[in-house]
Amino acid sequence: MQRLWVPHRMVYVADAHQPDEHDCPFCAAPGRSDEDALIVARGRHAYVLLNLFPYNNGHMLVCPYRHFSSYDDATPEETVEIGELTQTAMRVARQVMNCHGFNIGMNQGQIAGAGVAAHLHQHVVPRWASDANFFPIIAKTKALPQLLGDVREAIAAAWPVDPGPA
Predict the structure, then answer these.
(1) Which of 166 and 44 is assigned the larger pLDDT?
(2) Selecting from 3.40.640.10, 3.60.15.10, 3.30.428.10, 3.90.78.10, what CATH number does the domain 9-158 have?
(3) 133 annotated to bind ligand
(4) Are the C-beta atoms of 40 and 159 separated by less than 8 Å?
């Protein structure tokens, strides 16, 4: 039997700690370089970054800058921009990655599966007709064909430039 070792996943699997605003990765990311934080685009109220523990190649997260946990606590401006960034993420992923569909959603609360429940974030997961195989089911492993840095560079390069307020 062959094994595909993915030791970087152990950090996610073993760590049940739920960060607060003092150690929140989504609060810290905007203060780092885009390359280091895997940020592909920055808006006025929210930004887009690659998931460090992706379900699929190109798995993006749309996060507000402000630290809050529940979608119903978002301001109207945050809600609009999260939606707009999600739409752009889909368009760019189709262009760059030729994906066939998406899983989009938010896990609200730790019990619902949120890895970082304290900071709202929306998942944008590209899907392909042939992306499911036996690995996730039998081996509990996902094989990703590109490095995160390469994916970030391609998506960031294809992201449209914001012309600013009309």
Answers:
(1) 44
(2) 3.30.428.10
(3) no
(4) yes
